[in-house]
Amino acid sequence: MWLPCGCTSKYVASSFARRTLASYLHVSGRSRCNVAAFMPEAAGLEGVSGRAALRELSVSNSESFWAAVARHRLCWSTPFHTVQDCDLSRGKIKWFEGGKLNVSVNCLDRHVHTCPERVALIWERDERGSEMKYTYGELLEMTCRLGNLLRRHGVKRGDCVTIYMPTCPLAVASMLACARIGAAHNVVFAGFSADALAERIRDAQSSTVITVNQGVRGGKVTELKKTVDTAMQSCPTVKQVFVAMRTDNPVTMTARDIAMEEEMLKEDVVCEPAVMNSEDVLFLLYTSGSTGKPKGLVHTQAGYLLYAALTHRYVFSYHDGDVFGCVADIGWITGHSYVVYGPLANGATTVLFESTPIYPDPGRYWDMVERLKINQFYGAPTAIRLLLKYGDQWVNKYDRSTLKTLGSVGEPINTEAWEWYHRVVGDGRCPVVDTWWQTETGGICIAPRPSDPDAEIVPGMAMRPFFGINPVLMDTEGEVLTSNNTSGALCMAQPWPGMARTIHNNHQRFIDTYFQPYPGYFFTGDGAYRSEEGYYQITGRLDDVINVSGHRIGTAEIEDVVNQCPAVAESAVVGYTHSIKGQGVYAFVVLKKGIDVQEADLSRQLNGMVSEKIAKYASPDFIQFAKRLPKTRSGKIMRRVLRKVVESDLEGLGDLSTLDDPAAVQEIIQDINISA
Ligand code: WT7
């Protein structure tokens, strides 16, 4: 039945040098291509004469566009009868209803059928030079054994399995095994603390967890199984924990624990795929919001996979046989869409990067590019900024001639980092694609689209909406800004297949967060600038979410932990500009009356608490003890003012007349800890 089948606003655009992609690629003259050759998925669409027209049609007649690509790109066991059924005002999003398919079949079986020996995964282990390759045939076998094992242990269609593992082949096989048997996965980044893990397991109502004995990253061993054990103390509903062995060191096994590899060996290598509906849940992924606890965004089967696959192919100019190197951790959406689902759906060879950019030295990435012959490299600005400081020699040592496209994701890329990435890493030869998207969007929404060889790229700008994406900017009154050379709140006027469908167990929060601020539109939470030419540049979050080394964190979550300290009366956390991390965490803390403590000791304690309750990256870089915080007369902390203070933007403080006592601001300014 299954086979075969078919930055910030400071960086204004006008000051940037302009280059055209044609000059990078030496392919000018191919501009008037025929659509079928460029995008075979769209070959059946009538009356489309070029890429610009195709992009037009993908928005004006998005149903025809998405129907054509969904038929071409995915392998269905039953065709869909309805392309879309969406109503953004109610947060209702459904794509390809009636269609049935299995995501693991789309990512594995169909490639095994045509080329079983093609390498699916290259595991770039922490230990340099010890990479391991897995063919599509091998990955399918691992996935099937695991799928059978999970089934034998009672995991059913619709259950949710939490995966707490570093980026490794068994983690990918675990995700795909869930997809194979119709269970949802909930990958929790292995850098999260026991408390953060437990909270996500409870919210997801997972009764099964998959982990490893220990993790290895940057030469350091982390005790992941022990962290799971700690989390289990507050997760009574977990029945079983599968433990894979990343190192040779044994760990204490309890009655709940199952030795994963040993048990996998007993399983059959054939595992019947579950027949899934397009809108069944594929995974939950928790991310931070501006208020409240992290939310479990829900992505479903067909639309998500299609969008990940299409963006992977066209944003990065991926071609069959290319080696795709996205260095993100599978614990984030980038890892889901561009390490696992997008590349595997396209039959690519995808790299699993387990290490850090500077281990054992700052040449790690480029040594890897040479060794694995990587064609597309996709990383975060924070790492680029860090490596830039170590100097060009670490890049120049290695042969990077295989590189064709360089991608950037997670936060704005400043011009200096962009230029260095382009000039040094890419030898001035490879287009740099700054890709804007979010956990909520499922895949890249705004990017330069290098598949169009004539496309101009402006450094530091995300540039153009992808096929089917219809961005709009809103003013403070909630009106659409129609002119160019303007800034506003970035919203999407149309649904697309990759977008999240709901927040697990809280559809109302989904509506309130994304659809209620601008009724009829999806609100991203980001601000953007649209240039005279109509290009987009992301200017940063409009809410209390900050971005530390590409990791998203709500300031309220950090305040919550700080406020749990018995000595603390109240606190306010804001982000400030950090030269490597993009943003750092700055906490203002007011102690309870009569508390007599050494500030340094308390700072250490608070840092420890945040690392323990959330993760290390959320720990404040600066803690300033203040007598009081600037508040409005109604008692609301003025975070806007605090943000300006830590940015040393005293002129931008704005109207302080609504403050209860303006002197509070002066006190804080005097004691500020950083020269930002
Ligand atoms: C937030 C989403 C997208 C996968 C990784 C992060 C910021 C993301 C860019 C970019 C400027 C960016 C936004 C967005 N962001 N990419 N190219 N330029 N800002 O996913 O954890 O869901 O975070 O990251 O603020 O809202 P995420």
Automatic annotation (TrEMBL):
Substrates-to-products reaction catalysed: acetate + ATP + CoA = acetyl-CoA + AMP + diphosphate; propanoate + ATP + CoA = propanoyl-CoA + AMP + diphosphate
Domain called AMP-binding enzyme C-terminal: residue spans: 557-636
Domain Acetyl-coenzyme A synthetase N-terminal residues, every copy: 53-107
Domain AMP-dependent synthetase/ligase as annotated: residue spans: 109-496
GO molecular function, one term: ATP binding
Domain of life (superkingdom): Eukaryota
SUPFAM superfamilies: Acetyl-CoA synthetase-like (SSF56801)
GO cellular component: mitochondrion
Enzyme category, top tier: ligase
Keywords (A to Z) from UniProt: ATP-binding, Ligase, Lipid metabolism, Nucleotide-binding
InterPro entries assigned: Ac_CoA_lig, ACAS_N, AMP-bd_C, AMP-bd_C_sf, AMP-binding_CS, AMP-dep_synth/lig_dom, ANL_N_sf
GO aspect biological process, one term: lipid metabolic process
Enzyme Commission no: 6.2.1.1
PANTHER family documented for this protein: ACETYL-COENZYME A SYNTHETASE (PTHR24095:SF83)
NCBIfam families recorded: Ac_CoA_lig_AcsA, PRK00174.1
Family: Belongs to the ATP-dependent AMP-binding enzyme family.
Protein known as: Acetyl-coenzyme A synthetase
Organism of origin: Maylandia zebra
